[in-house]
Design goal:
single chain, 302 residues, mainly alpha, 3-stranded antiparallel sheet, two-stranded antiparallel sheet, 14 helices
C-alpha cells in the first residue's frame, strides 16, 4: 500500500465517516505528509503497513527539536489516529504509536481580551478605508463585531451565508465542526454593522460561487482564514495593543465575558457549539473570580 493511496483513503474516511471540516482534514493530513517527507529525505523504504515503532521514534525525535511539546503531542495524536484507521480497515493489526508516549503538557488557558481592548481594536479601524471602490473598513468592523458578539470560529465566520441571517428572530444559523448546525443569538448592534456591510456588498460584482456568502474580499469572492488573521494582526499593530491576538481570541473573550457576567456554562456551551461541556469548562479556569462569587452567593458557610 502506497502512502499517497493511504492518505487519500484516510481523507475520504475523515470527510464521509467522521464528517470533519476541510480545515480539520488538512491538519490531519499535514502530520502524515510530514512523515512521508521524512521517509523520502532519509530514503527509508517503509509503507504505511510495514512502518514500525523504531522508524517513528526517530522521526518524532527529529521533529521534536523544532516544535514545542504541545505541537509534538498533537503530531503523535494525529499519527496515532491514522494508524488506528489502518487497523480499522484491516491493513494493520497493531499501531506503531502505542508504545510512544506523548509529552506531558499542562492545560493551556485561552488568551482573552478585555472589553476595553476590544473597543480599542475596533476604534482603530478606518471606516472610510476603500480599496478598488469597495469600502472594506465597514466590512472589517462587521467582522470583528461578529467574531466577538457571537463567539464564532474563523471558519464559521467566512462560511456565514446571507440565508443564515435570521435578524427578525435575533439569531444566526451556524454550521460548525462536523457540519453540525446551531443557532447563535445576535445583538441589535452587530445586526446593524452587518446590515451596513450588506448595503455596501450589494454594489459589488459577486463571484458565482460566493452569491450567498456574507463577507467578501474586494473582488467579490469569499474571504480566506488567512485574510481575517491578517486584518486582525494589522489592527493590533495599529492600535498599539501589546498582545498576541488571533480570530480565536475573540471567541475566547466572548465566552469569558459571558461567564464573568453570570452566564451559565450550559448556555455558553450551546452558543460555542462545543460537543462536550468539559471543553467549555476551561473558561472556569480563566475566570476564577466567578467561582468565588458563586461560593459567596450560594454556600451557607460564607
Amino acid at each position: 500500500m502506497k502512502w499517497e493511496t493511504a492518505l487519500t483513503d484516510y481523507q475520504h474516511y475523515l470527510r464521509i465517516e467522521r464528517g470533519l471540516s476541510k480545515n480539520s482534514i488538512q491538519n490531519y493530513s499535514y502530520d502524515i505528509k510530514k512523515l512521508m517527507a521524512h521517509l523520502e529525505a532519509h530514503d527509508i523504504k517503509a509503507s504505511p503497513v510495514s512502518i514500525n515503532n523504531e522508524i517513528l521514534k526517530v522521526f518524532i525525535y527529529e521533529v521534536s527539536k523544532s516544535i514545542n511539546p504541545r505541537s509534538q503531542a498533537r503530531l503523535i495524536s494525529g499519527l496515532r489516529n491514522f494508524f488506528d484507521y489502518l487497523i480499522f480497515e484491516k491493513y494493520r493489526t497493531t499501531n506503531p504509536l502505542d508504545l510512544i508516549e506523548s509529552p506531558k503538557i499542562g492545560r493551556k488557558l485561552p488568551d482573552t481580551l478585555s472589553v476595553q481592548d476590544i473597543d480599542k481594536l475596533i476604534a482603530s479601524i478606518d471606516l472610510s478605508y476603500t480599496y478598488n471602490g469597495v469600502n472594506l473598513g465597514e466590512r472589517n468592523r462587521a467582522i470583528l463585531e461578529t467574531l466577538y458578539s457571537c463567539g464564532l470560529r474563523v471558519s464559521e465566520l467566512i462560511d456565514l451565508k446571507i440565508s443564515d441571517l435570521f435578524f427578525d428572530e435575533g439569531f444566526l444559523k451556524i454550521t460548525g465542526k462536523g457540519n453540525k448546525q446551531r443557532f447563535v443569538p445576535i445583538g441589535d448592534s452587530t445586526q446593524k454593522y452587518i446590515t451596513i456591510w450588506l448595503d455596501i456588498r450589494n454594489h459589488i460584482e459577486v463571484a458565482p460561487n460566493s452569491k450567498d456568502i456574507v463577507f467578501l474580499n474586494y473582488k467579490g469572492q469569499q474571504m480566506t482564514r488567512a485574510m481575517v488573521f491578517t486584518i486582525i494582526k494589522q489592527l493590533v499593530k495599529k492600535s498599539g495593543l501589546q498582545k498576541n491576538v488571533s480570530p480565536h481570541t475573540f471567541r475566547h473573550s466572548f465566552a469569558t465575558h459571558l461567564l464573568e457576567n453570570g452566564a451559565d456554562l450550559r448556555s455558553i456551551q450551546m452558543m460555542l457549539g462545543h460537543e462536550s461541556i468539559t471543553t467549555t469548562e476551561i473558561y472556569m479556569h480563566v475566570d476564577r473570580s466567578h467561582l468565588s462569587e458563586v461560593l459567596k452567593k450560594y454556600h451557607p458557610r460564607t
